[in-house]
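Bumping with the actual sequence this time:
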Amino acid sequence: MKRAIFPGTFDPFTTGHASIIRRALTFMDEVVIGIGVNEKKRTLLSTDIRMQMISEYYKDDPRVAVEAYSDLTIDFARRVNAHFIIRGIRSVKDFEYEESIADINRRLAGIETILLFTEPELTNISSSVVRELMSYGKDISSFLPEGMTIPTENKTININESE
């Protein structure tokens, strides 16, 4: 069985992330979405909310699991018996960074990283831009997967809900 992890902060989970998962599942049997918890990173959504929104989105796909982790990505990969790390690449800058990390992960743990280039229409979408728009109360629906629900403390925001 081919199992990969797709690590990230996912604050929030975007259409770009969903695209990477969809494409990874064409050659992986399972993908574990690893929500990295890093106290040094400032997030808008709590880990629990991110876990809930992603788990709910993939509730009908048994090939996708969602877990949070706070240790090294390679240790998380080992813990969930994954032999591959999936990463998305939007630019040359992303590539250079991911190449360095992939080399270290392979050297330390023998875990291969598979880089998927973002679809051209999604290259301008990043969690940090969407997070900033959210913080100002702007409509973010075109940046999140259709049907995604973002639970908040006081209400639930339904994204692209069918009419």
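The tokens above came from a reply further down the thread. The chain is about 35% helix and 25% strand.
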